[in-house]
Amino acid sequence: MTVAAGESTHLAAVLVAIPARNESTSIGRCLASIDQAAAHCRAPVHVVVAADSCHDGTAAAARDHPTSHLTVRVVEGQWRGAGRTRAAAIRSAFDHGYPDDATTWIANTDADCVVDVNWLGRQLHYATQGACAVAGVVALDGSTSPTNLLAKFAADYRVGGRTHHHVHAANFGIRADVYRLVGGWSEHTVVGEEHDLWRRLNGADLPLRQPTDLRVTTSSRTASRVPGGFATYLARLQRADPGRAEAAS
């Protein structure tokens, strides 16, 4: 496959991939925020929710949630892993009519996240400037986060200026042909699937952006479903003395 990198690209469609495992209480807020972002996006938006090994009604909650500016497809399976589930969501979209070419943009987030209203518009802005993939920043949900954790996260995360060094699967966009070129989300990576994919993109010498104006708000859960993930980082940060926690991914 030949990929045109670093050139202005017209994007005709946006796919949003969301892995979800027992997220019946949060998937509605997530979809509502993406619906608002889709209202400010110049390309049609289609969401695929991949419900992984759920037993709490996540799939039904996603199917039943009303939207005005996007379509939602729900797939269910027993993937048992974030990388495999993200890959399954995108594969399902490709199998049902979304082309894996330079005119489709894939935006990725998580079911416990709320995206900013300009989340999709800014991704397409960077794509039309030539970026093949973008990685944004995250903020903690202030309504559910302990005050001490919010303060420690703000001190440790350190985001300033127009660019940053973090990579989060919950705030990750990539052009579909590039996704295919580098092999997409790894189905063998248990944790850190975003770093694995970002390394492969860097290795392919593709134009990447890490802008600070691309933001999602995520839950502050500290009970990790996968040891070593973002919740593990938050738990370690909450226990640590100020300034001694390991930096976020």
Protein described:
This protein has 249 residues and is an alpha/beta fold. It has a single domain (13-137, 162-218), classed as Spore Coat Polysaccharide Biosynthesis Protein SpsA, Chain A, CATH 3.90.550. The two termini are 31 Å apart. The model has no long low-confidence stretch (mean pLDDT 91). The protein is globular, with a radius of gyration of 17 Å. Strand 1 (13-20), helix 1 (27-38) and strand 2 (45-52) form a beta-alpha-beta unit. The protein is 33% helix and 20% strand. Strands 3-2-1-4-8-6-9 form a seven-stranded mixed beta sheet, sandwiched between helices. Strands 5-10-7 form a three-stranded mixed beta sheet.
